[in-house]
Fold this sequence. Notes:
By secondary structure, the chain is an alpha+beta fold. The chain has eight helices and four strands. A four-stranded mixed sheet has the order 2-1-3-4, with helices on one face. Strand 1 (2-5), helix 1 (10-22) and strand 2 form a beta-alpha-beta unit. Helix 1 runs antiparallel to helix 6, helix 1 runs antiparallel to helix 8 and helix 6 packs parallel to helix 8 (193-214). It starts with a strand and ends with a helix.
Amino acid sequence: MELYYLPTSPPCRAVLMAAKAVGVDLKKTILNSLEGETLRPEFVKINPQHIIPTLVDNGFAVWESRAILIYLVEKYAKDDSLYPTDPQQKAVINQRLYFDMGTLTQSFAEYYYPQWLCRKPADPEAFKKIDLAFFYLNSFLENQEYVAGDHLTIADIAILATVSSFIVAGIDITKYSNVEKWYANAQKTTPGWDENCEGLLLLKEWIDKKINLSN
C-alpha cells in the first residue's frame, strides 16, 4: 500500500496516524505540492486531481484525507471502534470530519497561507474565524474526552493533526479549556503520535523559514 504525501501537511499526517491505528504498513512517497511535484505525469495518471494525500491499495487509488481515513478503517480495522457502524454515532463522526475540513482547516488556510505564501500581513478578520472554530470545538468537547463520543475515533485523529498544526503556528489553546484537556489526552492515546510530531518539526522549520524571508 503506497501513500503519496507531504509530512508537513496535517491531512497527510492524519492518514499516517490512522494507518498506525489499524496496523497497516505504508510505502511512503513524498510529493511536494508547493514545488509542483504532484503535477508529474505519472502521478496525474494515478490521481487526475493531483492532490495529496493519495493512497494506492493494490491498484485502487483514493484521495481526500477523510475519505482515506474511512477506507482504512472499514477495510483494515479489527473492529468498528474508530468508525462505528451505528448510524447516529457515524453521523456525529462525519459531522466532526466535515467540521475539520470546512471550518477548522479552512480557518487555518485563510489566516496563515496568505502570510506564508504571499507575504501578506495578518488579517484580524480571518483570525476571528480561527477563534470561532476553536469555540465550536471547545463546545463539542464539553463533558467528554473525545470529539465524537466516549472513545477515540477517526474524528479525533483528523482534528488532532489540524490542532497540532495550529499550535506549531503559534495558536494558544489554553483559553479553550476543553480543547486543551482533549489535546493532552489525545497525544497519549492516539497511535502514530510520534510520526505526527516528526512532521510538526518539519512544519515548524518551514514556517520559521517563511517568517525569516518576510522580515
